[in-house]
Amino acid sequence: MRMRRIGQWIGFHFFGISLAIFLVINCTFLYSWSLKWYNVQTAVSLSHKEIMHNYHQLIAYLSFPWIEHLHMTDFPSSSTGLQHFSDVKSLFMLNEGVLILSAIVFFFFIRELVKTKTLWQLIRPLQVTAVVPLFIGAMMSISFDQFFVIFHEVLFRNSDWIFDPQKDPVINVLPEEFFLQCFVLFFVFVEIFYLFFIWLGKRQIKNKPYSFGDE
Known about the structure:
mainly alpha
């Protein structure tokens, strides 16, 4: 029973994290906003609409397993650039696989808690866990440059992620500030996920007589 509960908690957290990653990837409005805010168009002779078209091509390649080759209308890619995007695609596919599998565990875990009216058991563990994204986010904000480098060194075994603007001009329209915003949005989504279930647990307590002895 204990191992089963541990597995349920692991599935719960994996679902929240992979869902947050999935949502960030598909928040294309964030990139559109970054283009305007940081005047990215000045780095290339393309319109906002044209850059967004290329960005959608990139996201489609990274997100859909049936798209096997990356083609961006206005941005050629070097062999190392293509390899890096291929590595990123593998990570995206892994995240989508984790999202699907953990969603199954998550669904049955939450359904069990709803049926047994024990959603309140989520409160204390999640109150502790919710501090983690805040702590990591604070550390990231101190030196994002260093965090960004370490992040890539952990996830990738090569240096293909270091783009040469002459060979991979797409890097000119992918400002570092945009990636910072992606990380911030990721932590926001994770926090919302945890806080939502804390709220559900507290709501259940208010609607039902509760004793700490029930734990």
